Amino acid sequence: MFSLTQAQQHPIFTQYMFNGLAINPAYSAVDDYLNATMIARKQWSGFEGAPNTQTLTVHSPFREGGSGSFGVFLLNDEIGQVIAERGIFLSGAKKVRLRQNLYLAGGISGGFTNFRADYSQLDDTGQDAIFTDQNDKSLNFGIGAMLFSDRFFVGLSSPFFSTLAINNNNINPSSNLPYFALQGGFLVDFNSLIKFKPSFLVKYVKNAPIQADLNANFYITRVLGLGVSWRSFDSIDLLAQIQITKNIELGYAYDFTNTSLQRAQSGTHEIMLRYRLIKGPVAERCYF
């Protein structure tokens, strides 16, 4: 038996460019400071049973100035009262310097997920076996690599490269499909006050259309960030970030859906809160 639908196996985020560990386990090697980032996303506001997702990521070098780093990624993803997916992932990464200010990092991750589906919450499932309840547990493993400097980055990863089912009561063929991501971006100084960062993300899952994101973010005096994103087959998004203190950053994104659900909902809201442990004077912002 299997289900026709599954929680967003690879949850969608608009502010992923500020939370790279959720996509690439090598990302923890990019910043030299401890980071903790929370994101809460309410998709398709006003649409009953719409996805609701929260994540928390924490990553840090093992020691100040060191080449090794670690990360933790917590996930809670729900679709109404019917489907819920929760997971915890641990990652490790190491970077090597290729030349002055140019690094190559590699990372691996491993974690546990629990996928639950209670189809009794649906109005009418009948006796169709296709709607048999699920409670699936699995181990997930990911890999990734990043080439980066303070002016650009390129990353290739598969955060769900291999999955091992644990005591599954049902078989869900889609849960074992690996997910691949290619991302990149660079930084341009318009003047002493304004920086511009274009970036992209391409995601691929077998038997699904390739999804592409194009992003344009502007940073003003290290305090304010404004941006716009386009996601294929899905939405156009507006983003804003403000540096509240040298350690705390607040972000917000609003998605204008351009799918058939456009008239049935009033957009998607996403809030980000990031803490970056900076000791002493204010450090240069981490743009990637």
Descriptive account of the structure:
There is one protein chain. By secondary structure, the chain is mainly beta. The protein has a single domain (16-276), classed as Beta Barrel (Porin), CATH 2.40.160.40. The chain is built from no helices and 15 strands. A hairpin with a 2-residue loop joins strand 4 and strand 5 (102-117).
| Helix and strand element order | EEEEEEEEEEEEEEE
The CATH superfamily is monomeric porin ompg
Radius of gyration: 19 Å
| Assembly type | single chain
Q: Tell me, what is the CATH class?
A: Mainly Beta
Strand order of the largest sheet: 1-2-3-4-5-6-7-8-10-11-12-13-14-15
CATH level 3 topology: Porin
The CATH architecture comes to: Beta Barrel
How is the main sheet built?
14 strands, antiparallel, barrel
Using DSSP, what is the number of strands? 15
**Overall geometric form:** globular
Coarse structural class: mainly beta
What low-confidence regions span 5 or more consecutive residues with pLDDT below 50?
Answer: 1-8
Q: Helicity range of the residues?
A: under 10%
Number of domains: 1
